[in-house]
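Blinded run. Sample ID left blank on purpose so nobody reads anything into the name before looking at the predicted structure. Input follows.
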Amino acid sequence: MDNAIKTPNRTGILVRALIVLAMCGIVNSAAVFVSPMAKHFGWTTEAIAGVATYMAFMQTPGHIISGWLLGKIGAKKTLILGCILLGLAFLLSGMVPSGSPWMLYITFSVLQGLGVGFTYTGSTYCATGWYPDKRGLASGLCMAFNGGSATFLAPLIVKLISSIGIIVTLYIVGGAIIVIGICAAIGLKTAPAGYAPAGWKAKADDPKLAATQLESLTPAQAFRTRGYWHLFLGYGLFPTMYIICYPRFSVLISDAGYSLSAATIGVSIYSICNVIGRLGMGALIDKLGYRKVYTICGICSVASSLCLMFAHSLAMFYIAYVLLAVGFGATNCCHPVAVQETYGSKYAGGIFGICMLGYMIICTFISPKISSALVKATGSYTASMVYAIIACIIAVIFYTTIPQPKRRTLAEVAAEEKAAQEKAAQA
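Blinded prediction complete.
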């Protein structure tokens, strides 16, 4: 049976998706906008203190809605909507009256959070759906462009703000996202069921090829499986390492007697290694599988925390930066592969969205409170980091033991649907 289906150029689709992902990576530069806005309008820190936090919170609803729309209306319409939401977040933030800083929670937080959720999930799961043979590499590219774009965008935005002011910069950024995003999204299309690229050099019994011929489960069906809770806990517990350790780097480096410039160099090292790690680990997934790569990420993250706890030289701090960058950043490459290999590609974006509830509940609400309580009770960061290590190990155990649910072949589904239609016609 010929599994090849006449389709658009998948490389072109990947490139378009990467453009959108690079733009939505601007969310990692939120502080670049918020601080100048506060200065421009004379707002107090307290008035807009939660803007970035609420924006991050709103990304999960964006992931869920985008993933659902991806399976209903396709990638093009979903991404166009996402780019419009993201662009409006900046355009409307530039129109917020100076006496109403609370409106920033609607424009910058709600709209940008939803826009990032839409563009991230829509682009990633559209692109990786076209690469069942190289899903790890495609995922790595997506994560590298999304995570690394802020490294280049942030300095550019800072220069724009210093040259033309924050308000005009917001208008330019918002307008560019809408125009460039829509142009890129127009050429996007969701991969058809059963898609296998022409020329795929795979054996007839290759499990990757066989998996493309299985039905895709819906988010509702996935939610009722045990595998969902493995993903839920993996998404929620593993990032604990990042949210606890990363903000502590500068403090611990300063406490150790090193300069602020030394800490800044560490941040740059982290950014570079994050991108390299996503690309390298993404490609490695295709050779070793996502379970082994996720385990490697866990080992790197635990080693980073231990290195940070016992650091007695600047070199050890930098090694901790490298290990965390590779360990945490690359886990994002595993998610599209794990979801699609477990549940199929068609509704994978929606399943990713509901799995992100684990991140929103555990990582946003529970873990920060536990970490703060441990620091307050012990007077040091050690107990908090031990908690991060335990959370990371639990996440790896659950993530690497995701059970495979029973899925029918596409041929079986087609036969059952045909039989049902014939029965209905006879009745």
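Unblinding after everyone has recorded impressions. The longest helix spans residues 348-378.
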